Amino acid sequence: MAKRMDLRPVIKLRSTGGTGFTYVTRKNRRNTPDRLVLRKFDPVLRRHVDFREER
């Protein structure tokens, strides 16, 4: 059971818009070892911005 959690850890994606809004998701550590950056909707700013992985 512990191996499953190590391969796909839960990560937080924090908005670069400065609002502090976060998404929570999982990622495959083998395929994407560096930090993830996704363009998602920020409901506080009401527009799409980059969300960066934080640890």
Summarize the structure in words:
- Strand 1 (10-15) and strand 2 (22-26) form a beta hairpin.
- The mean pLDDT is 92.
- The protein has 55 residues and is mainly β.
- It starts with a helix and ends with a strand.
- The protein is 11% helix and 45% strand.
- Strands 2-1-4-3 form a four-stranded antiparallel sheet, with no helix packed on it.
Main sheet properties: 4 strands, antiparallel
In whole angstroms, the N-to-C terminal distance is: 22 Å
Indicate the CATH topology: Rubrerythrin, domain 2
Return Rg in Å: 12 Å
H/E element sequence: HEEEE
Number of strands: 4
From the spread of the alpha carbons, the general shape counts as elongated
Segments where pLDDT lies below 50 for 5+ residues? Answer: none
Tally the helices. 1
Mean pLDDT: 92
CATH class: Mainly Beta
How many domain modules? 1
Give the class from helix and strand content and strand pairing.
mainly beta
The name of the CATH architecture is Single Sheet
Strand content: over 45%
